[in-house]
Every structure is written in structure tokens, then in C-alpha cells.
Amino acid sequence: MLTELGVDEIVPWQSARSVVKWAPDRVERALARWRSIVRESVKQSRRFWVPRVSPPLTTAELALRIAEPALTLVLHEGASDWITSVQLPVQGEVMIIVGPEGGLTPDELATFAGAGARAVLIADGVLRTSTAGTVALAQLHALTRPPPPQGTRRRDRPQFLLSPRGG
Questions:
Q1: Cα 92 from Cα 117, distance rounded (Å)
Q2: Domains held by the chain: number
Q3: Domain of 69: which CATH number?
Q4: What confidence category does residue 160 fall into, taking pLDDT thresholds of 50, 70 and 90?
Q5: Strand partners, 75
Q6: pTM of the predicted structure, to 2 decimals
Q7: Pick from 11, 113, 12: which is nearest to 72 by CA?
Q8: Is residue 91, in this structure, part of any structural domain at all?
Q9: For residue 88, what are the domain limits?
Q10: Is 153 inside any structural domain?
Q11: Which of 47, 56, 83, 108: disulfide with 104, CB 3.0–4.6 Å?
């Protein structure tokens, strides 16, 4: 779903609480599978470019990348600020760090904060890893979408319909 929403890069991260361990002998096979899924998602969503799927990073390596984008957000249930309260950059990239199912360790959170990342909330409860990134990206899209022109009625704007199970 991240591909469909327009993500530019997916960076697997080996956190302390990750269930899946990126074994060196299986990295290329796993990345090939992820890249295949991304390519198929690009076709389905009719995107113009294929997001990059990077090799997995350690916590220290990911922390070094935090300074690259204009803004880095860490999704965390203990954050005090909502993603909607964050001042988004006018231009530049935004990186979103999503923790594993077991959550971020205090050391990981401190490492990211020390590198310049900002912890934010995206929901009242704790979301699954597979859901959290999509929810955060959708919220950022909603925050950056321009308002409809003055005087536009609802029926004059695009309508979005959901058809479950492709039916």
C-alpha cells in the first residue's frame, strides 16, 4: 500500500525487537521478493516510477540517514505530539520510521531523537507495523493536499469509493 500512496523508498530496518532477522545469506532473496512486490504494486496503481527498496539497515545506520531528509518522524505510541501538529517542510523529503511489532526499545527511540527525529502519534491505539506506515503516509497526504476551490460543492469534487475484495 505504501507504493500505491506514493512512497519513494522503502528501507528495511533490523531493530532489536524485529521478529524477522535479515540473515546475510538470505538478504538478496528477500530483497528480490520485496522489489517484485513493489513492481507489481506500481503496475496496479499506475505509478510512473518504481520506489527503491534499499538493503536492510541497522539502528546505527538508520540514525545516520535521519539528517538527510528535511524531516524525520518516528511513529511511537508514547509520543506527546500528533502527526497533524507537525510543521511540514515546504519542500524536501520526509522520512517515516516505523517500529517492529514489539515496539521500539528506549535505546532506539533515544538514538533516533538524538539524530534529529521527532516522535509522533498517528492513532489512539497501537497499530500493527503493516498498518502504521500506510496510516502515517495517508495523514501526511491529507495535510499537504490543497483545499478545494472556494464555493466548490461536494458533488463537484472527485468521489472516492471503496470496493472490498475487488468486487
A1: 15
A2: 1
A3: 3.40.1280.10
A4: very low
A5: 120
A6: 0.82
A7: 113
A8: yes
A9: 2-143
A10: no
A11: 108
Kindly state whether residue 97 falls inside one of the protein's structural domains.
yes
Torsion sign, CA atoms 45, 160, 71, 34 = negative
Task: Give one DSSP letter per residue of the chain, joined into a string.
Answer: -HHHHT-SEE--B--TT-SS---TTTHHHHHHHHHHHHHHHHHHHT-SSPPEEPPPB-HHHHHHHTTSSSEEEEE-TT-SSBGGGS---SSS-EEEE---TT---HHHHHHHHHTT-EEEB-SSSPPPHHHHHHHHHHHHHHHHSPPPPTT--GGGS------GGG-
Q: List residues bridging with 37 in a β-sheet.
A: none
pLDDT at 102: 85
Give 89-133 pLDDT, tens digit per residue: 888 889 999 988 888 999 999 999 999 999 999 998 888 888 898
Tell me how far apart the alpha carbons of residues 110 and 129 are, in angstroms, rounded to a whole number.
20
Please state, in angstroms and rounded to a whole number, the distance separating the CA atoms of residues 158 and 97: 31
Chain centre distance of CA 58: 17
